[in-house]
Give the backbone structure.
Amino acid sequence: MPEPQDDPIVTSSRREAIYFAVLWLGTLIYTVGYCFAHGYDRPLDASLEGMTFVWGWPDWVFWGIVLPWGICTVISVVFATFIMSDAPLGHDSSGDGDDGESSV
Amino acid sequence: MNKWLDPSSYGVLFALAVIIVVSGWIGVVAQRAVSRGSFLKGFFLGNRGLGVWAMALTATVQSGGTFMGVPSLIYSHGYVVALWIGSYMLVPLAGFAFLGKRLAQLSRRTDAVTMPDLMRGRFDSPAVGLATSLVILFFLTFMLMAQFKAGAIVMKLAWPGNADLTLSEDGAITMDAEYYTGLVIFTVVVVAYTMFGGFLASVWTDLFQSVLMVIGVTIMLFLALSAAGGLEKATRSAVARIDEQAAVAKIAVAEFDAAKAANRELTAKEKDAELLARKNAKDSGVAFVTGPGMGRAFLPMGLAFSFFVVWIWGGMSSPAGVVRVMASKDTATLRRSVIVLCFYNLLIYLPLIAICICARSIMPNLAKSDEVVPRMALFLTNDLFGGSFIAGLILSAPFGAVMATVSCYLVVIASGVVRDVYQRIINPEATDYEIRRMTRIVMILVGAVALIANISPPAYLQALVVFCTSGQAGAFFVPLVMACFWRRATKEGILASMGAGALTVLVLYATGWTRSWLGYPDPGIGQATDFRPYFLLGIEPIVWGIAVSGIVGIVTSLRTPPPSQELLDRMFGPVEPAQA
């Protein structure tokens, strides 16, 4: 039996969903892992000696959250610009109300 | 000061009045836009014409909670809340790149106006449509009640001279004439403009308040950093102040203990001071800058993992968000929305963390942590020209957020009743005029019921909101993914998946509530509330709900007959159904 053929939006969406799921898993492992290893139950005294600050943020917050946030923003912009593909969404089967005139 | 002479209160009231007038105007403008084409698609879906800004800033932004919940958590538990909210770095892609295009396409192929419409058409099953509708109506009704109460409370607090700025649901808000006036004004305004402008009015007010919020946060960030001398200095100062405060609190606790040992009756004021002292005595500056957080183990590993699931997978399955993605104009809109939302989130969340850390250093003694943003706004703008109005704008953001949320729920509930019940079951031959009339009747009825229910509102509604969000995600995330990508998914599989997910969340919450009611000790993790769920293996119920929903959905689909080839061709195939 021949493989059923999918619409280009189905195939591109499925591919993009898989990319996203991998990105989510990678971010989860890095962010939660890094923060747990460097930010949890850290032996510090009240003077915070041993903790450095990067751009004002405690080191573990900067390397574990702020930096990945910046990287994810760059990845998202690249993803939206170069990886997500455009295709016609089609029209309503009833054929009305698809004028898109009210867009903001 | 005489309560009527406090200038800051007039700033808030004025800003609130501006928001109400703008919302009314938006309702009228939206009404003109939706009057083109068919009433149903215009009123409930904005003629599928949402552009980049409206899509980006309203489909996934958890606006109501941002200004109320998150700052309070940062102030109370410290930097670990950055990890709690950290997965928002991926929300733009999750919202628009994961399911967005397919949902927008499926909604056109099924000619869907609502999410139940989409599910019904995708599986060619009225039962799936009805089940989706019932689950949405069940959860959204609770959510709506809570939002009406929140709206009334914000109005009450904006009344000149109300020094209490807390937005807490459970706190000392008295149900007096100001509350009832607030409730009536709020109900009339929100029902009226939603009835006029429908979906577009709801989206545009949401957009308006999202813009207000980002302006408010940006102004506050600069003022807060400059007042605290930079983020590092603010952090060090916050740590030192927390330790000082804890030392003082420990002495106070010892004195209270001595007084109790001597059988001295404490006054009401002393009892409040004792509660605060006992809470502060447990704090430590180091815990404020490390995990799992200050005050209690706010975010142990299991919950840190859970919140990467909650914000990402839970957020994308909210019916209100799904409808907005369905209304997307085209795929380019979805792509550009990712970019806009990325920068918006960057401008909101990290600055909000910095502002609240500064707040802990500048105002270390707030008795109610949910007052942190309003108090900071008033403090930082005190010496500025036009400061009262700036503070008013910042303080009115929660009101705008609540209005936008209520309006959105009103549209979803009305569409559920009118489209999925009235038009599908009661009167399939209904004309545009009859549908329009029924929509207005439903909105007025929902507004009236919400108003009556909130005359004597139950406490702890905020906990119900969290429960409903989790329940919806448990019920809908897996079915939506199956609907979009899996040819072998069957209607039986979807029904089983939906039921199993919702039930799992329900059971875990009910277990937690029962344990709390029976007096089991607080496990000491997550947010402090009596209505805590049962964290099985230290993980949020939503994760279990999604896992169970996935397993049940896949197994049931594989054990039931596959869907017809004709249906699959219509939903997945390259050839569009015949055009009208």
Summary: Confidence is low (pLDDT under 50) at residues 1-5, 166-172 of chain B. Chain B touches chain A through 96 residues (CB under 8 Å).
